[in-house]
Amino acid sequence: PLVTSTEMFKKAYNGGYAIGAFNVNNMEIVQGITEAAQELNAPVILQVSKGARAYANHTYLVKLVEAAVIETGLPIVLHLDHGDSFETCKSCIDGGFTSVMIDASSKPFAENIEITKKVVEYAHDHGVVVEAELGALAGVEDEVNVSAEDSHYTRPEEVEEFVTKTGCDSLAIAIGTSHGAYKFTAAQCTRNEKGELVPPPLRFDILDEVVRRLPGFPIVLHGSSSVPQEYVKMVNQYGGKMPDAVGIPEEQLRQAARGAVCKINIDSDLRLAMTGTIRKFFAEHPEKFDPREYLKPARANIKELVKHKIVNVLGCDGKA
Ligand code: G3H
Ligand code: 13P
Ligand code: NA
Ligand code: ZN
Predict the structure, then answer these.
(1) pLDDT tens, 233-279?
(2) Which of 126, 150, 182, 276 has a CB 3.0–4.6 Å from the CB of 234, allowing a cystine?
């Protein structure tokens, strides 16, 4: 069935693992993710961004996810990713989602509380849960102002007041992850023996302090793609241009999943798997033009990637 994340997070917190929240934009992505989850009997969150709704249409995405529930028999959460307003959240709550994120993290603290609280009241009245965010994820923009970097991390001293006043069900925090395939500039990284970029470690000290203040409360990590170099190389080998794309090392995400982190967001890795696979297919079969022929291996590689995440990063295999 389509479920909320309440039970999933409780079990994940106590069991020392996390649920994968994967972004979906079309049928092949939904199928690749949910076939992987089904084979491994893993709970899964499918999340839809504002951009996904603009691209694929709300109803198509809801129906694709409902189809996945029917086909897999798994408990699946349908979640709004980065809801930007009360209206967007309301439209998803009214339209069949079981979970929404209100991301007012760029607003001043009091305003973030105010808008989050309003979404929580409406959502809870309709049996829907709410993820909120405190702190702004680091991004490449931070490169120009490294000294201001700390101000972008979540301030642990704010989390109790925020959660108490808003009534949110889970909290996304900023501890050094970042969105997209270029999470860190070369200048922020060191290099290993192979010459690959090694990013600065996540701020587990901040996570620990948040957990000390919010014991038992489910924490969410955004921007948690690892940007597999195998796919970056595939993209670059077959005509793409993604120099110095770098993500979060999987071992650090595994460590986060063992603790209070109950939801780990992954989108960019799916995009890389899909794009790398299709670029390779086009290069090797220039005569082919049936979309099924290139979407099939793309879907298969998304499935393999998600299976890898479930087993090696999230630890949620067998937990559905
Ligand atoms: O955090 C953003 C997600 O990766 C969704 O991206 O807004 O391009 O759909 P999008
Ligand atoms: P990535 O860009 O690291 O995949 O992050 C996705 C995300 O946080 C969606 O909300
Ligand atoms: Na966990
Ligand atoms: Zn995000």
Answers:
(1) 999 999 999 998 999 999 999 999 999 999 999 999 999 999 999 99
(2) 276
How many whole angstroms separate alpha carbon 162 and alpha carbon 133?
A: 10
Q: CB within 6 Å of ligand 2 — which residues?
A: 23, 81-82, 179-180, 222-225, 265-268
Atom 9 (ligand 2): residue with closest C-alpha?
A: 265
Catalytic residue among 81, 142, 267, 317: 81
Which atom of ligand 2 is the closest one to the Cα of 181? 2
Q: Is 290 a catalytic residue?
A: no
ipTM summary value: 0.99
Global pTM value: 0.96
**Ligand 4 centroid to 302 CA: how many Å?**
19
- In this predicted model, what pLDDT tens digit does every residue of 147-184 receive, in sequence order? 445 448 999 999 999 999 999 999 999 999 999 999 98
Give all domains of the chain, ordered by start, each with its CATH number.
6-314 (3.20.20.70)
Atom of ligand 2 nearest to the CA of 177: 3
